[in-house]
Amino acid sequence: MTCRLCSEDSVELHFDFGEQPIVHHLIDSEDQPYKKHPFKVGYCHVCGLLQLIDHIKPEDLYQNYFTVSAWKAQPHAPRLIQLMESVFGIEHQTRILEIGCNDGTFMELLANHKYKNAIGFEPTQDAFELALGRGLNVVNDFFDPNTATSLMGGENPDLIVSRQVIEHIPDLHAFLDGVSEVLNPGGGLVLEMPDHSMNYETLDYTFWEEHVNYFTLNTMRSLLALHGFEIVHHESTLFSGKAFFVFARKSNSDTPRSISVNPDHEQAIRYRDLYPELRNGMIKMLEGVSDRGVALYGGGARSCNFINLLGLGDYIDYIIDDQPEKQNKIVPGANLTMRSYSRELDKDKFFLLGVNCEVEAKVVRKRALSQFASVLPPSVNLPRFWQELAQIKI
Ligand SMILES: [Zn+2]
Q1: CATH at 58
Q2: Which domain holds residue 363?
Q3: What's the pLDDT score for residue 73?
Q4: Is 184 a member of any domain?
Q5: b/e per residue, 332-349, with b = 16+ CB within 10 A?
Q6: pTM of the predicted structure, to 2 decimals
Q7: How does pLDDT run across 165-187, given as a tens digit for each residue?
Q8: Residue 181 Cα, ligand 1 centroid: separation in angstroms?
Q9: What are phi and psi of 100, to 5 degrees?
Q10: How many angstroms does the Cα of residue 261 sit away from the middle of ligand 1?
Q11: 241 with 287, same domain?
Q12: Are 377 and 202 in contact (CB under 8 A)?
C-alpha cells in the first residue's frame, strides 16, 4: 500500500481491529442500526508514519460534529500566543488564518489579545455557527487558498495556525500545497496535533477513526521538509493524552526536499508486538474484578474506542459520563449505556478511568473512588501490569 506521506509503496498492516462503528455517533436504543467500517492501521517503514488504511470519507464523518472544542479546557492556548509573539514576532495587525477553527475558541483568545485581523475555516456546521455567534470572521467550508485570500481582501496571511486538524487530513500534500501557496513569503506556520511518540512509549492503542495520521515529531519534520518548511521550535503539552506543536518557516529554496531516515522504527515494531500482551492483561484484570462489576468513567471518543478496538465491552456494565447531552445514549459497538454517577449504585464498582489525565485526579476526589485504574496514558493510574509492560526496554 502507498504511504500518504512519502508516497512509497511501503505501508504494512500493523493492526486490524475488524469492523467498527463511528464511535461518537451515539445511538438511542440497542436495536438502532448503525454503519460499521473496517478499522486498520498501517505503518510505513520508510518514513515511519502510522496511518489508517481505508479511512472513512470526510463527508461522512464530519457532517454533524459532536466534539466542540470549548468542552475541553485548553490551558496551553495562551502559551501558543506567547510563542507566536516570540518566535514569529507577530503584531496586532498581523494577518492570521486559522484552518479548522472549530467553535472559535482560539480565534476569540486571539481577539482578546488584540489580534483582530484573523479569519477561520470550519467545515462542520454546528461548530461554525458557534464561532459565527462569537462575532468572528469565519467561513463554513474546508480550507481553500482562493477563498482565504479573497476574505483577506486579496492579501495573503502572514501566519497560518491549524490546531488538532492535520491528523484528520487524508490528502496531506494537497493541504500543505494550499498552505504553501497562500502563506506570505517569510510567513510562519503553527501546527498542533496529538503526539504519537507518547503512544509508543506508554503502549497507548487508542486510535480514532477521525485521526487518519499518527504523527511524531520525526514524521512531521519529514512531511514539512517535503514542502520546504523547516521546524524552528517545538513543544509538547498534556492535552487529550499528549499533544505537540511545531513552529515552521519556509526554508531556503535550495534546501533539498527529502525525508530523513526513520528514527521511530524500533519503537513502532515494539508497539505492534506488545499489543496482544496489553489486551490479554486488560482482560485478565477485568476478569479479576468482575464480581464487583465494572464501569467505565468517561465516555469520550478515546476511551470508547479503546473499549471497542480491544473488544472489552462484554467486561463492562455501563459508562458514567458527566455530560448531560450524552446520558441515556448508547455507545455503538460496545453497546454500553451512558448515565450519570450515582453514589448509591456505583460505590462498590471497579472503575476504568477514561477521562483525560489532566482531570483524572479531580474525578477521583470528587467521587471518592477507591477501586480504579486508568486506561488513558500518560496517567499515573494505569494498571500495574501495563506500567510494567511499557517499561520493557527496546
Ligand atoms: Zn512513508
Answers
A1: 3.40.50.150
A2: 267-390
A3: 58
A4: yes
A5: bbbebbbbebeeeebeeb
A6: 0.91
A7: 999 999 999 999 999 999 998 89
A8: 23
A9: 80, 60
A10: 11
A11: no
A12: yes
